[in-house]
């Protein structure tokens, strides 16, 4: 499948591995792919983000939102809502745990040392497969960074929630990248 990736999409995948290594993560997650997409400039994906109001200066708010989700142990807002329906206040649980064990205690533990490539999580592998399906659905011959971005917005989870909070949804991205309306600028 990687032979179908453009130079920009390959750079995103390599950047995701770099973000995972920098964080000391045991594997490459979907959030690492999003961070790598935010690093890129001059690509279809970066132009689409900018067109939707997520300019480079505003991208730091996405990074902060991903950091906050990591602090919650990677639980999405949908997960927090489901726990709330059961009478569990996730914010209170996180606060109590951090009082006892320190800030960031629920964040995945960093791995020290270790050489070589980080494996991709099940979600990150599914994201790569989704990007192929997205490219095929749009009759594109190659998988670009825009397909990785579209795939991120099409999958449930924290990266899609954070992007949606910033006005970047599958529908709005499709409108910017392929026309057909649906594009709205984030305010």
TrEMBL record:
The keyword NADP does not apply. GO terms for biological process: proteolysis. The keyword Protease applies. InterPro entries: Clp_N_dom_sf, Clp_R_N. Pfam families: Clp_N (PF02861). SUPFAM superfamilies: Double Clp-N motif. One of its GO terms (molecular function) is peptidase activity. Keywords: Hydrolase, Protease, Repeat. Residues 2-187 form the Clp R domain. It comes from the Bacteria. This is Clp protease N-terminal domain-containing protein. It comes from Streptomyces kebangsaanensis. The lineage of its organism: Bacteria, Bacillati, Actinomycetota, Actinomycetes, Kitasatosporales.
